[in-house]
Amino acid sequence: MVPIEPFTLLDVELRRHLTFDHPQGHVTLIYVATGDLAVSSEGGARHLAQRQAIAMHGDGARLSFAADELAHLVVMSAPEIREPVLIDGPFIMSSAEQIAAARVRYRSGGMGQLPPS
């Protein structure tokens, strides 16, 4: 299955240094699962500890990640979607019609089912 929107997903164990070109017009989320991480770009620097995250809007900058000891991080980046957002319970869509259609799919089992545990 091909995703509707292109994206980058990196699952990284970092021991020293890594650079990531933050594409123009993208939104990037950096989540530190374990360890400590220094994130820097031309616009400044931030320190992220374990279980912290930062979201960045892309201006074409190069991001640098540095870890003194082993750090596990997840980097997710995708083009910014400039659409209206409606939230109704667990459903997040762009219109009331899409939310209604999602509810119908959910009720009919079209979104899959999890067996009771």
What's the gist of this structure?
By secondary structure, the chain is mainly β. The protein has one helix and ten strands.
Task: Give the key terms.
single chain, 117 residues, mainly beta, four-stranded antiparallel beta sheet, 10% helix, extended
Q: Could you please describe the fold and organization of this structure?
A:
With 117 residues, the protein is mainly β. Helices cover 10% and strands 49% of the residues. The chain contains one helix and ten strands. It has one helix at residues 96-107; strands at residues 8-14, 17-21, 26-34, 37-41, 44-48, 52-57, 62-66, 71-79, 86-88, 91-93. The strands form three sheets. It has a four-stranded antiparallel beta sheet, with no helix packed on it. A four-stranded antiparallel beta sheet has the order 2-7-4-5, with no helix packed on it. The model has no long low-confidence stretch (mean pLDDT 88).
* Largest sheet strand order: 1-8-3-6
- What's the gyration radius in Å? 18 Å
Quaternary structure: single chain
Distance between the termini: 28 Å
Number of strands: 10
Largest sheet: 4 strands, antiparallel
**Helical content, roughly?**
10-25%
Helix segment tally: 1
Beta-strand residue fraction: over 45%
Q: Quick check: average pLDDT? A: 88
Record the SSE blueprint:
Elements: E1 8-14, E2 17-21, E3 26-34, E4 37-41, E5 44-48, E6 52-57, E7 62-66, E8 71-79, E9 86-88, E10 91-93, H1 96-107
